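Intended use. Records like the one below are meant for learning the mapping from a protein sequence to its folded structure. Do not use them to infer anything beyond what is encoded.
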Amino acid sequence: MKSLTTRIFKNGNSQTVRIPQELRVDASQVQISSSTDTDLVIHPITQDRGNALIMTLNAFDEDFANCLEEDYSQQLTVQAQESADIAI
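Structure written out for the chain above:
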C-alpha cells in the first residue's frame, strides 16, 4: 500500500484533501468512511448504476435481440394456452 503526505485545505465549512497525482482516482465521486480510530478510507465510485445498466444492455448484439423476439413470438398467450390445455 502506497502512502504519501499531503495538505488539507479549508473550503467553506468543509475540508479539502489534495490527492497527489500518484494516487489520483479515475472517478468523479468517492465514498469516505472513518474507522473507530479516526482513519479515513476513500473508495472511488466509478460510475452510477444507471450508466452501467445502459452499457450492459448496449453490449447485447442484434442476434441476441432477434432470438428474444423470436422466443417471445412463439409463446402462447394465456388464453391460447388455457384453450390448448382444455383440448388435451
